[in-house]
Amino acid sequence: QAISLRELDDVTSLEDKLGRSLTREEKNRIGVSNLRLFLEELLQNRYIESVPSIIPLLEKEHRAASRKLRKVTQEISDLDEAKLKEKARLFH
């Protein structure tokens, strides 16, 4: 609420200094709320621009994680009681 009031004060102050009413376009460029909207839009555009370069990196990480998961799964399957007994028997 304080921010909204401050923005209204800023518009009124500018109109007084200029001696005329501000246009809608001019009002849309004043205040923290409009700055926030501008920055959010800028951030979203940068994110969308970055997606094509991020996807290959994510795919590479996915492949690496999948390989590690297969390896760990294989190691866990080797811990089967029957397999361990057989390995112990062969070692003995």
TrEMBL record:
<protein>
    <submittedName>
        <fullName>Uncharacterized protein</fullName>
    </submittedName>
</protein>
<dbReference type="InterPro" id="IPR027417">
    <property type="entry name" value="P-loop_NTPase"/>
</dbReference>
<feature type="coiled-coil region">
    <location>
        <begin position="55"/>
        <end position="82"/>
    </location>
</feature>
<keyword id="KW-0175">Coiled coil</keyword>
